[in-house]
Structures are given as structure tokens and as C-alpha cells.
Amino acid sequence: MSTPDPLQSTISSLDLSISPTHCGYCGGQGSLSQGMWVERLTVSDYQALLDRGWRRSGRYVYKPCMSLTCCPLYTIRCKAGEYQPTKSQRKVVKRVQNFVKNGTKSKEDELSSAKTTKNEAASNNVDEVNKSLKRKEKELTEEDGKETSETTNVKPSQFKKVEGQRKAKTLRREKYLEKLIKSGKEEELEGEAAIPKNKPKHISALIPDQNFFALNQKILQSENDSAHKFELRLVKADLTDKHFMRSFHASYRVYRQYQTVVHNDKPQDCGIQTFAGFLCDSPLIYETKENKVLGAFHQQYLVDGLIVAVGVVDILPHSLSSVYLYYDPVWWGKGPNLSPGTYTAIREVQLTQQLDLPFYYMGFYIHSCPKMRYKGRFLPSDLLSPTLLSWHNIEHCLPQMEAAKYSTFADIPVTGPAIALPSMEVGRVRLCVRDRLTSYEEWKGEGARSEEVEQYHALVGQNLAESLVLRWSGRAESDDESV
Q1: Residues 6 or more apart in contact with residue 373 via CB below 8 angstroms
Q2: Contacts of 10 (CB under 8 A, 6+ apart)
Q3: DSSP 292-313
């Protein structure tokens, strides 16, 4: 092209020095990473950066120095189409749904409600339960008779053991019948087609399907008779977007409360400018592909018209990438164990599925930090090898991370096709020197070289080095030495 593409990815400056900083995971001073400041970035280029272990924070894109940092940060992605919530994750969804439906109740209200529910269930199903009880009594009698006949010639000590087993079985059966009464359900008749108890549960069986991609619209998630009105709204993370700015200050208030209460930040450290730069000023260039708008977004969770949580996400060509979550600690603290992190992650997997994207990127998995291990329970998931840049099943990787905090997973099978890395040609790095597009080979001329440009080339790889444009001062190492 005769003129530069105005929509190309542009790197404004590099930050490749390795200086230890404070680690938010272990609390030490051994966090090591390298990064770069981005002027603008296509969604395709950012997808490629994610697949090389990079991650963005506002306009700053960084890559951990995996073999040196105190807490290795492994890129993790979940296969959204194959994801099935675990039992504990389903409980989290149920707790949130119950809290939205029933609201905050006193202990007396809860006891009264539970008693009423129990009585109603028993009265509505009294005939069915009585039939079930009679049937089970007959079965238990037959089982007791059988056990008695089989134990007539055994020693007293052996008889006591068998009798104890019989009583245990009876107790288990009584508990089962009591559960039937409480739930208001009739036990299945023997011979009837039964649904397997351990049948996998999909997200659609747990939460409403009304989580589709609809920009700037409130999507109702609660039932009409719920104590609270629960809605979702997806907005662009764009300070020039009028729809985003309508809720900007309300969203900021939630962010400030979250940072000060949950992370104990000082108010001056989480001002509105910090919020805007960190979570609202994205370098991603919006584009529409296959009826989907790609770029940076805020998924807002609203209860009774007020924002109670915001999931910051990037929608990319092959994935939805989680950037950050902040929430109202007061609202989420009203209910018992509402677990906003797990709940919103499940909703983001759902959004990934509905966008027909194969992967949900959960940021970094930090095995050395117990509070971050919940990400490893979103299965099936893979971890990125920091050296091979290949993906490996997390369940196979866990033993190695238990043995040593840093691993390349070199001896663990690769999931998916093998990665074919192109040959490295540093001369093809794209530069912009004094507002003129050039290549590293053309710029360095005879004898000149830049160790920083070559290090940048090694970090981003050949394909990205030819796609990204690095704004460069044009100074070689020889120039620096003469100053």
C-alpha cells in the first residue's frame, strides 16, 4: 500500500526492562514482566498476543517473565462449547437465583416459609407419598426377611454386624422418603424409565437464555414475581460512546467501592481517571464480523435498576476474554455465599457460547495462589506452555505445578493441532520512524542495530512483528553509547 492503513495496530512505546515489582498474589516483591504501550490494536492481533501469553490492562499489554517471576501466570482458556457446570458451580447459580427471587428475609420469615413449603408439599402429594411409603415398607420387609433367613446359622457377632447393616439401610431409606416428602415428589416406580442422576447439566438448564448479544439493551433475567428485578446490559467500553457514558459514573462508584472494600485500596489510588484509563480506554479497534461486534465491552449486572457488578470483557475473533470484574460488596454480601466471581464467569461462558465462539479466556491461572485456583474448575480447560506456545489439558498439568511452580508442560500431550511457528527474520519487523513506515532491515542500514527491537521481535514472534507497527525513535545502540 502507498499509504499506511489507519486501522493497523500501532505500538507507541516499549517497556522491556526487567525490574521486580509488588506481587498482588503472594504479597512479595518478585513480580517480573515485560510490556508495551499500545496506541491501537486490531482484535485479530490481540487474539494472537493472547495466544503467546500476553494480556492487556487498559492500553498496556504485558507478558510475565515466566521462569523468573515469583508467581508464574499461565494463560488459561475454557472450551466453552464443552463446558458443564460442576455441582458447586450449580449451587452458586442457585443461590444467586434464590436471593434474587426471595430477597433478604429474617430468620423468622425463613423458618415460616420453610415450614409452609414443607406442609404444602406434603399435603399436595399425600396420596402419592403414602403409596410410595407402603411400597417401600413392603420392599424393606422382604429385604429384612431375606437377610434374616440368610443369617440364621451365623455367629452372634456376625449377626450383629449384619443387623447393623440392615438398620443402616433402613435409616438411609427413611431419609430418602423424608426427602421425598419435603420435595413434594413421588418416587419412581420400579421399571419406569429413569433419568440418570448424574446426567451432565448444561448452562441453559440453569440460567435464562436471554443473555444474547444485544448492545445497550437491558435483558430481563428474573421472574415476574421475584423480589428483585435482575437484568443484564452489554455496552461498549468506549469513552466516546454516549450509551456507555450514561452509566459511566454509576459504574465508577461500584468500582471505587469494590477497590476500597475488597482490595483495601486508598481512595486516592482508585480515582475516576484511574478507572477510565484502566477499564474504559481500550486500544481495541471495533469491527463487525459475522453479525458480531468485536472489541471491548462492559457486561453490567443490574438489580432494581442499579449496577451491582461489571464484567469487563473483550470479544475477539475466536474467543471472549475476561479482563476484570468489579462488584458492589454490600449487595453481594447480603446473601449467603453468593460468589460473584464464579457466578459472573458462568455467565461469561454462556455469552461465549451464544456468540458461537469456541474459547473463553479467563486471564491467568496462578496455581501458587489458592484463591485463583477456582479457574481450574471450569472444565475442560487448557493451559498455554510458556515456551512451546502449545495448549495442554489443565488436569494433566496440575501434578507438575504441584511439584514445581514453573513448568513448560513439554512432556504433556498437546490438545488440538500442533503449533507451527514460522522462521524468525528480525529484518522484517515493521517500524514507524519519524512518521515513515519502514522495516528493521531497512532502518539499520550498515552496521546499526537495536537490541531492544530484536528483543521485542522475540517476544511478539514473527507473525505479529510483521503485523504490528512499532513507533521507533530511530536511535541505535551506538548512538546511546556516544551520549
Answers
A1: 365, 366, 367
A2: 38, 39, 40, 41, 432, 468, 469, 471
A3: EEEEEEEEEEEETTEEEEEEEE
Buried b (16+ CB within 10 A) or exposed e, 98-126: ebbeeeeeeeeeeeeeeeeeeeebeeebe
Q: Is the pLDDT of residue 138 over 50?
A: no
For the record, the C-alpha cell of 60 comes out as 498496556
**CA 323, CA 108: separation in Å to the nearest integer?**
42
C-alpha cell at position 256: 471505587
Helix (H/G/I), strand (E/B), else coil: 334: helix
SS3 string, 359-423, reads EEEEEEECCCCHHHHHHHHCCCEEEECCCCCCEEEHHHHHHHHHHCCCCCCCCCCCCCCCCCCCC
Three-state secondary-structure class, residue 282: coil
Q: Indicate the range of 171-185, 190-204, 451-465 predicted with least confidence.
A: 190-204
pLDDT digits (tens, 9 = 90+) for 48-89: 999 999 999 999 999 999 999 999 999 999 999 999 999 999
Which residues, in sequence order, are CB contacts of 254 under 8 Å at separation 6+? 307, 308, 309, 310, 326, 327, 328
Q: How far apart are CA 445 and CA 338, in angstroms?
A: 62
Is there a contact between 128 and 186 (Cβ–Cβ < 8 Å)? Answer: yes
Indicate if the pLDDT at residue 462 is higher than 90.
Answer: yes
Inter-axis angle of helices 126-150 and 156-183, nearest 10: 170
pLDDT tens-digit profile of 278-290? 999 999 999 999 8
CB 346 within 8 A of CB 204: no
| CA distance between the termini of the chain | 37
- What's the pLDDT band for 448 if we cut at 50, 70, 90? confident
**Contact, 210 vs 221, CB < 8 A?**
yes
Q: Burial of 277 by CB count in 10 Å (0-12 exposed, 13-18 middle, 19+ buried)?
A: middle
Cell output for 14: 516499549
Q: What is the dihedral of CA 152, 157, 163, 168, to 10 degrees?
A: -160
Pair 77, 319: CB distance under 8 Å: yes
Judge whether 354 and 212 are in contact, CB under 8 Å: yes
pLDDT tens digits, one per residue of 211-224: 566 899 999 999 99
Q: Summarize pLDDT for 14-51 with one digit per residue, the tens.
A: 999 889 999 989 989 999 999 999 999 999 999 999 99
- Are the CB atoms for 89 and 342 separated by under 8 Å? yes
Q: Which three cell numbers stand for residue 221?
A: 433475567
Give the list of residues 6+ apart from residue 291 with CB closer than 8 angstroms, or none: none
Higher local confidence (pLDDT), 186 or 325: 325
pLDDT at residue 381 in the model: 98
Tally of residues, the chain? 483
Rg (CA), the chain: 29
